[in-house]
Amino acid sequence: MVIAAVLLGTLGGAVGFGLLAIFIWWGWWVVAGFFLLGLVIALADLTQRRHSILRNYPLIGHLRFLMETIRPELQQYFIERNYDGRPFDRDVRTLIYERAKGIHAEQSFGTERDLDAAGYEYLVHSAMPVPVPAQPPRVRIGGPKCTAPYSMSLLNVSSMSFGALSGTALTALNRGASAGGFAHDTGEGGLTPYHLEAGADLIWELGSGYFGARTPDGRFDPEMFARKASDPHVKCISIKLSQGAKPGIGGVLPAVKVTAEIAAYRGVPQGVDCISPAFHSAFTTPRELVRFVAHLRELAGGKPVGIKLCVGDRSQVLSICKAMVAEDDGPDFIIVDGAEGGTAAAPLEFEDHMGLPLTDGLLTVHNALVGTGLRDRVKVGASGKVASGSDIVKRLIQGADFTNSARAMMMAIGCIQSQRCHTNQCPVGVATQDPRRARALDVPDKAARVHRYHEATVAQAVALMAAMGVSDPSQLHPAMLRKRTDSVTQRSYAEIHEWLDDGELLADPPPNWVRDWARADADSFNGAARAR
Q1: DSSP tag of 162
Q2: Mind listing the pLDDT tens digit of every residue in the chain (532 residues)?
Q3: How is residue 24 annotated by DSSP?
Q4: What is the DSSP code (8-state) at residue 182?
Q5: I need a labelling partner for 350 at 20 to 30 A (CA). Which of 39, 125, 387, 475 fits?
Q6: Angle in degrees, 0-180, between the axes of helices 314-327 and 286-299, rounded to the nearest 10
Q7: What is the pLDDT of residues 391-405, one digit of tens each?
Q8: Residue 239 gets which letter from DSSP?
Q9: CA triplet 161, 163, 165: central angle to 5 degrees?
Q10: What's the CA gap between 386 and 185, in Å, rounded?
Q11: Radius of gyration of the chain (CA)
């Protein structure tokens, strides 16, 4: 154990060199003093609550902060990630940390971004800004068949299950969501006390493993689901079809993280890889999916039921829309997960080579719903590297009604992106099931950070919209987001992308959509593949 080694090493050094000073040469007192000072610092690190990494790595954890002070480039190295085809925006992690800590995120001497480079995007401000609303706008989730609609925040905690994250991390996220009045998506690991005890509004995600509502043979258990869905904290149900990091395969929780507690909540064997099936057993066609949505809504007492997916073939999205039109029913919301999204465990090829990025996925789902006359009945969520207020506004322009964030929320509770999630050795207690590591995460402190981060980020999004002359997200339109397409040309999203009219696919599909519309089959997800 690192803690024991540091304490014993510093104590032993202080005692050993103290004895040398007493019996051999007084000069050894200087060395003994250094060891004693190290022991005092280590004890202070163990008792402080601000830095989780110091609670798990007393004394030696200061080396990380020292390196970042000496070489800020190291910090940039830690946070750079593929971000919609571009490096992760400069100082995004710093922005998240500062907002979480209640520090104003400001920068001197202007931007360092290359404003002339192709791919640069900017929001169009107005010469006549409007006043910032006193309260941030919220989004009503619930279609015509929903009797218990929910008012959703513009930014919420994205799906991260108990298993992927520690119980202390989930408790901190849940307390922060409860204090801030935004929703917490459970992930597919089932409902647990870590989701329920703090009282936050929950989106209960139901994956292909049906954890938390599962029969012994792994099938959906309607009675168990109805009982748990009646909990007043459960506001929405989300059926996970696929996720951005590994579309086409089920969730993966390595055996080292499947503790007795997790095995009990999920209804799976302890100490064995927990791998969800790649597909659902409760339905096999778009029409059956729509009927399953209706069934869950009825079992949940009329609460909103939606689906989550990473978009692959556009015709499969259209197949779901055709089934919704045919059945006159369907999901109350659709969460679009971008292929650039992160996860604790996924095959590298799936992460890098499967699924549409969030922008393309949003445009696909939005246009499909508009073209089939369903957009006013279905709200769209965006999930994938949403970290700042500008990210929220851009996603709303691209077709979303609300956003979910996982990585930024993890950073708000102290994640340093060490990429050790799958090993159960997270250095800050966020993505581990090791109780000795998880204890480093101080729940009250991190919950307050989550609340502050959310509040500041949504406030910034609302302020940006006001600067654009918009007092409500419904007033945003594609011409308000522009992109530099080369060194001399910039065009708006209204010009770059195709935007369908209401009901256009039902009346007269445009040429670019004719083939996919013809291939879409309400009674088969694979009809598109057979039609090629």
Answers
A1: B
A2: 677 777 777 878 777 887 887 888 888 888 887 788 878 887 787 777 777 777 777 777 777 666 655 554 444 444 443 333 333 454 677 788 788 888 876 665 556 566 667 788 999 999 999 999 999 999 999 999 999 999 999 999 999 999 889 999 999 999 999 999 999 999 999 999 999 988 999 999 999 999 999 999 999 999 999 999 999 999 999 999 998 777 877 778 888 888 899 999 998 999 888 888 989 999 999 999 999 999 999 999 999 999 999 999 999 999 999 999 999 999 999 999 988 866 556 667 777 778 899 999 999 999 999 999 999 999 999 998 899 999 999 999 999 999 999 989 998 998 877 777 777 788 888 888 888 888 888 899 999 999 999 999 999 999 999 999 999 999 999 999 999 988 889 999 999 999 999 999 999 999 999 999 999 999 999 865 554 4
A3: T
A4: -
A5: 387
A6: 60
A7: 999 999 999 999 999
A8: E
A9: 70
A10: 15
A11: 25
> Which two tokens mark 219?
């099938």
Please give the span between the terminal C-alpha atoms of the chain, in angstroms, as a whole number. Answer: 58
Q: How many contiguous H segments (helices) and E segments (strands) does the chain have?
A: 22, 17
- Which sequence spans correspond to the domains of the chain? 2-79, 153-519
d(CA 427, CA 444): 19
Q: Which helix (H) or strand (E) holds 12?
A: helix 2-23
Q: Tell me the pairing of strands 402-405 and 481-484.
A: unpaired
Which residues are CB-neighbours of 193 under 8 A, at least 6 positions away?
none
Q: Taking the model in full, what pTM does it have?
A: 0.87
Could you report the per-residue pLDDT of 294-310, keeping only the tens digit for each? 999 999 999 999 999 99
Rounded distance, CA 431 to CA 218, Å?
26
Cα separations (Å) of 135 from 96, 132, 474, 505? 22, 9, 16, 37
Contact call for residues 411 and 96 (beta carbons, < 8 A): yes
Contact yes or no for 314/519 (Cβ under 8 A): no
CA distances from residue 258 to 273, 275, 325, 347, 505 in whole angstroms, order as listed = 7, 11, 42, 19, 47
Residues 6 or more apart from 484 whose CB is under 8 A from it?
A: 115, 116, 117, 118, 119, 120, 121, 490
In CATH, the number for domain 153-519 is 3.20.20.70
| Three-state SS annotation for 324-367 | HHHHCCCCCEEEEECCCCCCCCCCHHHHHHCCCCHHHHHHHHHH
Residue 231 identity? D
Amino acid identity for residue 176 in this structure: G
Closest CA to 155 of 420, 453, 398, 427: 453
Alpha-carbon span 15 to 414, nearest angstrom:
35
Tell me the pairing of strands 402-405 and 155-157.
parallel
